[in-house]
Amino acid sequence: MKKILITGGAGFIGSHVVRLFVNKYSDYQIFNLDKLTYAGNLANLTDIESQPNYTFLKGDIVDAAYINGIFAEHQFDAVIHLAAESHVDRSITNPLDFVFTNVVGTVNLLNAAKELWKADFSDKLFYHVSTDEVYGSLHDDSFFLETTPYDPQSPYSASKASSDHFVRAYRNTYKMPVVVSNCSNNYGPNQFPEKLLPLFYNNIKNNKPLPVYGKGENVRDWLYVLDHARAIDDVFHKGKEGETYNIGGFNEWTNIDLIKLLCKVMDRKLGRAEGESEKLITYVTDRAGHDLRYAIDANKIMTELGWKPSLQFEEGLEKTIDWYLANETWIDNVTSGSYQKYYENQYTAR
Ligand code: NAD
Ligand code: TYD
To answer: Are 81 and 127 in contact, with CB atoms under 8 Å apart?
Structure first.
Protein backbone atom coordinates (compact mmCIF):
# COMPACT_ATOMS: atom_id res chain seq x y z
CA MET A 1 0.00 0.00 0.00
CA LYS A 2 1.43 3.35 -1.06
CA LYS A 3 1.72 5.84 1.80
CA ILE A 4 1.11 9.43 0.78
CA LEU A 5 1.63 12.45 2.99
CA ILE A 6 -0.61 15.38 2.07
CA THR A 7 0.23 18.55 4.01
CA GLY A 8 -2.33 21.30 4.63
CA GLY A 9 -5.20 18.88 4.05
CA ALA A 10 -7.55 20.66 6.46
CA GLY A 11 -7.35 23.86 4.40
CA PHE A 12 -9.38 24.98 1.42
CA ILE A 13 -7.63 23.26 -1.50
CA GLY A 14 -5.99 20.53 0.58
CA SER A 15 -9.34 19.24 1.87
CA HIS A 16 -10.59 18.74 -1.69
CA VAL A 17 -7.35 16.97 -2.63
CA VAL A 18 -7.53 14.70 0.45
CA ARG A 19 -11.17 13.78 -0.29
CA LEU A 20 -10.41 13.04 -3.93
CA PHE A 21 -7.44 10.80 -3.08
CA VAL A 22 -9.12 8.98 -0.17
CA ASN A 23 -12.24 8.20 -2.22
CA LYS A 24 -10.50 7.42 -5.51
CA TYR A 25 -7.49 5.41 -4.35
CA SER A 26 -8.43 2.78 -1.78
CA ASP A 27 -4.97 1.24 -2.26
CA TYR A 28 -3.27 4.41 -0.93
CA GLN A 29 -2.95 5.23 2.75
CA ILE A 30 -3.48 8.99 2.93
CA PHE A 31 -1.89 10.89 5.83
CA ASN A 32 -3.17 14.43 6.26
CA LEU A 33 -0.68 16.55 8.19
CA ASP A 34 -2.00 19.91 9.34
CA LYS A 35 -1.23 22.35 12.13
CA LEU A 36 -4.85 23.53 12.19
CA THR A 37 -4.03 27.21 12.06
CA TYR A 38 -6.96 29.63 11.74
CA ALA A 39 -7.22 28.40 8.10
CA GLY A 40 -7.37 24.69 8.91
CA ASN A 41 -10.79 23.23 9.57
CA LEU A 42 -11.35 19.51 10.09
CA ALA A 43 -15.07 20.02 9.61
CA ASN A 44 -14.12 20.17 5.90
CA LEU A 45 -13.44 16.43 6.03
CA THR A 46 -16.17 14.92 8.23
CA ASP A 47 -17.45 12.80 5.32
CA ILE A 48 -14.16 10.90 4.94
CA GLU A 49 -12.62 10.97 8.41
CA SER A 50 -13.69 7.39 9.24
CA GLN A 51 -12.37 5.84 6.02
CA PRO A 52 -9.78 3.10 6.73
CA ASN A 53 -7.26 4.61 4.30
CA TYR A 54 -7.27 8.04 6.00
CA THR A 55 -5.15 9.20 8.97
CA PHE A 56 -4.99 12.70 10.41
CA LEU A 57 -1.74 13.95 11.95
CA LYS A 58 -1.79 17.23 13.85
CA GLY A 59 1.60 18.89 13.57
CA ASP A 60 3.66 21.84 12.45
CA ILE A 61 5.92 21.61 9.39
CA VAL A 62 8.22 24.18 11.04
CA ASP A 63 9.01 21.62 13.77
CA ALA A 64 11.87 19.64 12.18
CA ALA A 65 12.07 17.03 14.95
CA TYR A 66 8.36 16.27 14.62
CA ILE A 67 8.59 16.07 10.82
CA ASN A 68 11.63 13.75 10.92
CA GLY A 69 9.77 11.60 13.43
CA ILE A 70 6.66 11.07 11.31
CA PHE A 71 8.73 10.27 8.20
CA ALA A 72 10.67 7.65 10.20
CA GLU A 73 7.48 6.24 11.71
CA HIS A 74 5.25 6.09 8.64
CA GLN A 75 7.81 5.65 5.81
CA PHE A 76 5.95 7.83 3.29
CA ASP A 77 6.41 7.02 -0.41
CA ALA A 78 5.35 10.43 -1.66
CA VAL A 79 4.51 13.93 -0.47
CA ILE A 80 1.92 16.34 -1.84
CA HIS A 81 2.78 19.60 -0.12
CA LEU A 82 0.05 22.22 0.22
CA ALA A 83 0.50 23.50 3.79
CA ALA A 84 1.22 27.20 3.68
CA GLU A 85 0.31 30.60 4.97
CA SER A 86 -1.76 31.66 1.97
CA HIS A 87 -3.31 35.11 2.42
CA VAL A 88 -1.52 38.08 0.81
CA ASP A 89 -2.98 40.64 3.23
CA ARG A 90 -1.72 38.68 6.25
CA SER A 91 1.72 38.46 4.61
CA ILE A 92 1.82 42.24 4.43
CA THR A 93 1.19 42.58 8.17
CA ASN A 94 3.24 39.58 9.29
CA PRO A 95 5.85 38.44 6.72
CA LEU A 96 7.88 36.29 9.12
CA ASP A 97 5.03 33.79 9.61
CA PHE A 98 5.27 33.23 5.85
CA VAL A 99 9.03 32.71 5.98
CA PHE A 100 8.68 30.13 8.74
CA THR A 101 5.85 28.06 7.31
CA ASN A 102 6.37 28.49 3.57
CA VAL A 103 10.18 28.46 3.42
CA VAL A 104 11.48 26.74 6.59
CA GLY A 105 8.53 24.32 6.66
CA THR A 106 9.14 23.28 3.04
CA VAL A 107 12.86 22.77 3.63
CA ASN A 108 12.08 20.65 6.72
CA LEU A 109 9.87 18.40 4.58
CA LEU A 110 12.52 18.19 1.85
CA ASN A 111 15.18 17.22 4.43
CA ALA A 112 13.00 14.55 5.98
CA ALA A 113 12.13 13.11 2.55
CA LYS A 114 15.80 13.15 1.50
CA GLU A 115 16.85 11.37 4.67
CA LEU A 116 14.21 8.66 4.24
CA TRP A 117 14.60 8.17 0.49
CA LYS A 118 18.30 8.83 -0.18
CA ALA A 119 19.30 5.15 -0.47
CA ASP A 120 16.85 4.69 -3.33
CA PHE A 121 14.86 7.54 -4.86
CA SER A 122 13.03 5.29 -7.36
CA ASP A 123 9.22 5.45 -7.13
CA LYS A 124 9.42 8.39 -4.71
CA LEU A 125 8.00 11.85 -5.42
CA PHE A 126 7.94 15.25 -3.71
CA TYR A 127 5.08 17.23 -5.27
CA HIS A 128 5.12 20.91 -4.37
CA VAL A 129 1.90 22.87 -4.88
CA SER A 130 2.54 26.52 -5.65
CA THR A 131 0.94 29.64 -7.04
CA ASP A 132 1.02 31.76 -10.20
CA GLU A 133 1.84 34.75 -7.96
CA VAL A 134 5.54 33.77 -8.06
CA TYR A 135 5.65 35.13 -11.64
CA GLY A 136 4.78 38.64 -10.48
CA SER A 137 2.36 41.14 -11.98
CA LEU A 138 1.43 41.40 -15.69
CA HIS A 139 1.11 44.85 -17.21
CA ASP A 140 0.37 43.78 -20.80
CA ASP A 141 -1.82 41.10 -22.39
CA SER A 142 0.72 38.27 -22.11
CA PHE A 143 0.35 35.09 -20.02
CA PHE A 144 2.50 33.30 -17.45
CA LEU A 145 4.31 30.32 -18.98
CA GLU A 146 6.25 27.67 -17.06
CA THR A 147 9.39 29.42 -18.36
CA THR A 148 8.39 32.93 -17.21
CA PRO A 149 11.12 34.26 -14.87
CA TYR A 150 10.10 34.56 -11.23
CA ASP A 151 9.36 38.10 -10.07
CA PRO A 152 7.40 37.87 -6.79
CA GLN A 153 6.00 41.15 -5.49
CA SER A 154 4.39 40.40 -2.11
CA PRO A 155 5.83 38.74 1.00
CA TYR A 156 3.45 35.82 0.31
CA SER A 157 4.62 35.31 -3.27
CA ALA A 158 8.27 35.86 -2.27
CA SER A 159 7.96 33.07 0.30
CA LYS A 160 6.27 30.73 -2.20
CA ALA A 161 8.91 31.55 -4.85
CA SER A 162 11.63 30.76 -2.34
CA SER A 163 10.04 27.40 -1.52
CA ASP A 164 9.76 26.56 -5.25
CA HIS A 165 13.48 27.32 -5.65
CA PHE A 166 14.36 25.06 -2.72
CA VAL A 167 12.35 22.19 -4.21
CA ARG A 168 14.18 22.50 -7.54
CA ALA A 169 17.53 22.91 -5.75
CA TYR A 170 16.97 19.61 -3.92
CA ARG A 171 16.40 17.92 -7.27
CA ASN A 172 19.55 19.43 -8.76
CA THR A 173 21.74 18.87 -5.72
CA TYR A 174 20.49 15.62 -4.16
CA LYS A 175 18.57 14.07 -7.14
CA MET A 176 15.28 14.29 -5.22
CA PRO A 177 12.42 13.41 -7.63
CA VAL A 178 10.12 16.45 -7.67
CA VAL A 179 7.29 18.03 -9.57
CA VAL A 180 5.89 21.56 -9.12
CA SER A 181 2.60 23.11 -10.19
CA ASN A 182 1.65 26.77 -10.14
CA CYS A 183 -2.06 27.53 -10.10
CA SER A 184 -4.20 30.63 -10.51
CA ASN A 185 -6.81 31.91 -7.99
CA ASN A 186 -9.12 29.17 -6.73
CA TYR A 187 -12.76 29.53 -5.70
CA GLY A 188 -15.37 27.07 -4.46
CA PRO A 189 -16.72 25.38 -1.32
CA ASN A 190 -14.81 25.57 2.00
CA GLN A 191 -12.75 28.69 1.23
CA PHE A 192 -11.96 30.72 4.33
CA PRO A 193 -13.96 33.98 4.32
CA GLU A 194 -10.97 36.30 4.24
CA LYS A 195 -10.44 35.69 0.51
CA LEU A 196 -12.43 37.76 -1.96
CA LEU A 197 -15.33 35.48 -2.93
CA PRO A 198 -16.40 33.98 0.43
CA LEU A 199 -15.81 37.31 2.22
CA PHE A 200 -18.02 39.18 -0.22
CA TYR A 201 -20.62 36.39 -0.24
CA ASN A 202 -20.86 36.62 3.54
CA ASN A 203 -20.96 40.42 3.57
CA ILE A 204 -23.72 40.50 0.94
CA LYS A 205 -25.76 38.01 2.94
CA ASN A 206 -25.32 40.12 6.09
CA ASN A 207 -25.80 43.48 4.33
CA LYS A 208 -22.28 44.61 5.16
CA PRO A 209 -20.06 46.85 2.96
CA LEU A 210 -18.01 45.17 0.21
CA PRO A 211 -14.47 46.60 0.54
CA VAL A 212 -13.11 46.84 -3.03
CA TYR A 213 -9.39 47.62 -3.01
CA GLY A 214 -8.39 50.59 -5.19
CA LYS A 215 -10.56 50.92 -8.29
CA GLY A 216 -11.33 47.20 -8.57
CA GLU A 217 -9.41 47.06 -11.86
CA ASN A 218 -7.01 44.26 -10.88
CA VAL A 219 -7.41 41.09 -12.90
CA ARG A 220 -7.38 37.53 -11.57
CA ASP A 221 -7.75 34.20 -13.40
CA TRP A 222 -10.27 32.05 -11.48
CA LEU A 223 -10.38 28.25 -11.31
CA TYR A 224 -12.92 26.03 -9.54
CA VAL A 225 -11.18 24.27 -6.66
CA LEU A 226 -12.30 20.77 -7.71
CA ASP A 227 -10.68 21.35 -11.09
CA HIS A 228 -7.44 22.22 -9.29
CA ALA A 229 -7.75 19.02 -7.23
CA ARG A 230 -8.22 17.00 -10.45
CA ALA A 231 -5.18 18.73 -11.95
CA ILE A 232 -3.12 17.79 -8.86
CA ASP A 233 -4.26 14.17 -9.32
CA ASP A 234 -3.13 14.30 -12.98
CA VAL A 235 0.22 15.94 -12.22
CA PHE A 236 0.90 13.48 -9.38
CA HIS A 237 0.14 10.42 -11.52
CA LYS A 238 1.04 11.49 -15.05
CA GLY A 239 3.34 14.49 -14.67
CA LYS A 240 6.94 14.13 -15.78
CA GLU A 241 9.44 14.14 -12.92
CA GLY A 242 11.32 17.43 -12.69
CA GLU A 243 8.70 19.37 -14.65
CA THR A 244 6.56 22.36 -13.77
CA TYR A 245 2.90 22.60 -14.76
CA ASN A 246 0.89 25.83 -14.81
CA ILE A 247 -2.78 25.33 -13.92
CA GLY A 248 -5.46 27.87 -14.77
CA GLY A 249 -8.89 28.31 -16.24
CA PHE A 250 -8.28 30.88 -19.02
CA ASN A 251 -10.89 32.79 -17.04
CA GLU A 252 -9.86 36.39 -16.36
CA TRP A 253 -12.05 38.85 -14.51
CA THR A 254 -11.47 42.34 -13.21
CA ASN A 255 -12.37 42.36 -9.52
CA ILE A 256 -15.19 44.84 -10.06
CA ASP A 257 -16.83 42.81 -12.87
CA LEU A 258 -16.59 39.68 -10.75
CA ILE A 259 -18.07 41.45 -7.71
CA LYS A 260 -20.95 42.85 -9.79
CA LEU A 261 -21.70 39.37 -11.14
CA LEU A 262 -21.62 37.97 -7.59
CA CYS A 263 -24.02 40.73 -6.45
CA LYS A 264 -26.40 39.96 -9.33
CA VAL A 265 -26.51 36.22 -8.61
CA MET A 266 -26.89 36.88 -4.87
CA ASP A 267 -29.83 39.25 -5.51
CA ARG A 268 -31.53 36.44 -7.41
CA LYS A 269 -30.72 33.77 -4.79
CA LEU A 270 -31.79 35.95 -1.85
CA GLY A 271 -34.91 37.27 -3.59
CA ARG A 272 -33.64 40.85 -3.50
CA ALA A 273 -34.43 43.51 -6.12
CA GLU A 274 -31.80 43.60 -8.89
CA GLY A 275 -29.08 46.12 -8.00
CA GLU A 276 -29.72 45.90 -4.26
CA SER A 277 -26.47 44.13 -3.29
CA GLU A 278 -24.33 46.32 -5.59
CA LYS A 279 -25.17 49.26 -3.31
CA LEU A 280 -22.91 47.62 -0.72
CA ILE A 281 -19.81 48.18 -2.91
CA THR A 282 -17.39 50.49 -1.08
CA TYR A 283 -14.06 51.51 -2.57
CA VAL A 284 -11.27 51.39 0.03
CA THR A 285 -7.52 52.13 0.10
CA ASP A 286 -5.65 49.83 -2.25
CA ARG A 287 -3.57 46.86 -1.01
CA ALA A 288 0.12 47.85 -0.72
CA GLY A 289 1.99 46.72 -3.87
CA HIS A 290 -1.25 45.26 -5.32
CA ASP A 291 -0.40 43.01 -8.31
CA LEU A 292 -2.30 44.26 -11.36
CA ARG A 293 -2.96 41.09 -13.36
CA TYR A 294 -2.35 37.35 -13.15
CA ALA A 295 -3.08 35.12 -16.16
CA ILE A 296 -1.97 31.53 -16.65
CA ASP A 297 -1.23 29.84 -19.94
CA ALA A 298 -2.40 26.30 -19.10
CA ASN A 299 -1.65 24.76 -22.51
CA LYS A 300 1.12 22.49 -21.26
CA ILE A 301 -1.01 20.57 -18.74
CA MET A 302 -3.89 20.49 -21.22
CA THR A 303 -1.89 19.05 -24.12
CA GLU A 304 0.58 16.86 -22.19
CA LEU A 305 -1.67 15.50 -19.42
CA GLY A 306 -5.11 15.90 -21.02
CA TRP A 307 -6.47 17.99 -18.12
CA LYS A 308 -9.05 20.70 -18.69
CA PRO A 309 -11.40 22.71 -16.47
CA SER A 310 -14.79 21.00 -16.13
CA LEU A 311 -16.88 24.10 -15.48
CA GLN A 312 -17.63 27.46 -17.05
CA PHE A 313 -17.15 30.23 -14.51
CA GLU A 314 -20.83 31.25 -14.27
CA GLU A 315 -21.75 27.64 -13.49
CA GLY A 316 -18.95 27.31 -10.93
CA LEU A 317 -19.99 30.54 -9.24
CA GLU A 318 -23.62 29.35 -8.97
CA LYS A 319 -22.46 26.05 -7.47
CA THR A 320 -20.22 27.87 -5.01
CA ILE A 321 -22.97 30.24 -3.86
CA ASP A 322 -25.40 27.31 -3.55
CA TRP A 323 -22.85 25.47 -1.40
CA TYR A 324 -22.41 28.43 0.95
CA LEU A 325 -26.18 28.96 1.16
CA ALA A 326 -26.69 25.28 1.98
CA ASN A 327 -23.85 25.26 4.55
CA GLU A 328 -24.65 28.25 6.71
CA THR A 329 -23.42 26.44 9.81
CA TRP A 330 -19.99 25.98 8.21
CA ILE A 331 -19.57 29.70 7.55
CA ASP A 332 -21.15 30.68 10.90
CA ASN A 333 -18.73 28.39 12.75
CA VAL A 334 -15.80 29.80 10.80
CA THR A 335 -16.75 33.42 11.39
CA SER A 336 -17.48 32.83 15.09
CA GLY A 337 -14.27 30.84 15.57
CA SER A 338 -16.08 27.82 17.02
CA TYR A 339 -14.72 25.54 14.25
CA GLN A 340 -11.41 25.58 16.15
CA LYS A 341 -13.00 23.49 18.89
CA TYR A 342 -13.77 20.72 16.40
CA TYR A 343 -10.40 19.03 16.80
CA GLU A 344 -10.70 19.08 20.58
CA ASN A 345 -14.20 17.60 20.51
CA GLN A 346 -13.46 15.08 17.82
CA TYR A 347 -9.99 13.87 18.71
CA THR A 348 -8.89 14.60 22.26
CA ALA A 349 -11.80 12.68 23.77
CA ARG A 350 -10.68 9.51 21.92
P1 NAD B 1 -5.41 27.57 3.20
O2 NAD B 1 -4.85 28.75 3.91
O3 NAD B 1 -6.88 27.44 3.05
O4 NAD B 1 -4.90 26.22 3.89
C5 NAD B 1 -3.58 26.05 4.35
C6 NAD B 1 -3.55 24.86 5.30
O7 NAD B 1 -2.19 24.70 5.76
C8 NAD B 1 -4.43 25.05 6.55
O9 NAD B 1 -5.18 23.88 6.81
C10 NAD B 1 -3.42 25.30 7.66
O11 NAD B 1 -3.86 24.85 8.95
C12 NAD B 1 -2.21 24.51 7.16
N13 NAD B 1 -0.94 25.04 7.72
C14 NAD B 1 -0.55 26.34 7.75
N15 NAD B 1 0.64 26.45 8.36
C16 NAD B 1 1.01 25.18 8.70
C17 NAD B 1 2.16 24.64 9.34
N18 NAD B 1 3.14 25.43 9.79
N19 NAD B 1 2.23 23.30 9.52
C20 NAD B 1 1.22 22.48 9.08
N21 NAD B 1 0.11 22.96 8.49
C22 NAD B 1 0.01 24.30 8.30
O23 NAD B 1 -4.68 27.57 1.78
P24 NAD B 1 -5.21 27.08 0.35
O25 NAD B 1 -5.88 28.22 -0.31
O26 NAD B 1 -5.91 25.80 0.50
O27 NAD B 1 -3.81 26.85 -0.39
C28 NAD B 1 -3.16 25.58 -0.33
C29 NAD B 1 -1.88 25.65 -1.15
O30 NAD B 1 -2.17 25.99 -2.50
C31 NAD B 1 -0.88 26.72 -0.64
O32 NAD B 1 0.41 26.18 -0.75
C33 NAD B 1 -1.08 27.88 -1.60
O34 NAD B 1 0.11 28.62 -1.73
C35 NAD B 1 -1.44 27.14 -2.89
N36 NAD B 1 -2.29 27.90 -3.83
C37 NAD B 1 -3.45 28.49 -3.40
C38 NAD B 1 -4.26 29.16 -4.32
C39 NAD B 1 -5.57 29.80 -3.92
O40 NAD B 1 -6.20 30.47 -4.74
N41 NAD B 1 -6.05 29.59 -2.71
C42 NAD B 1 -3.87 29.24 -5.67
C43 NAD B 1 -2.68 28.62 -6.06
C44 NAD B 1 -1.89 27.94 -5.13
P1 TYD C 1 -7.56 37.43 -2.67
O2 TYD C 1 -8.79 36.58 -2.60
O3 TYD C 1 -6.95 37.92 -1.41
O4 TYD C 1 -6.50 36.64 -3.58
P5 TYD C 1 -5.07 37.14 -4.18
O6 TYD C 1 -4.67 38.40 -3.54
O7 TYD C 1 -4.17 36.01 -3.81
O8 TYD C 1 -5.29 37.26 -5.66
O9 TYD C 1 -7.92 38.71 -3.55
C10 TYD C 1 -8.38 38.61 -4.88
C11 TYD C 1 -8.45 40.01 -5.45
O12 TYD C 1 -9.47 40.73 -4.75
C13 TYD C 1 -7.17 40.80 -5.25
O14 TYD C 1 -6.96 41.62 -6.41
C15 TYD C 1 -7.46 41.68 -4.04
C16 TYD C 1 -8.95 41.92 -4.13
N17 TYD C 1 -9.64 42.08 -2.83
C18 TYD C 1 -10.44 43.20 -2.60
O19 TYD C 1 -10.61 44.07 -3.47
N20 TYD C 1 -11.06 43.33 -1.38
C21 TYD C 1 -10.90 42.40 -0.40
O22 TYD C 1 -11.48 42.57 0.71
C23 TYD C 1 -10.09 41.24 -0.65
C24 TYD C 1 -9.89 40.17 0.39
C25 TYD C 1 -9.48 41.13 -1.90
So the answer is: yes
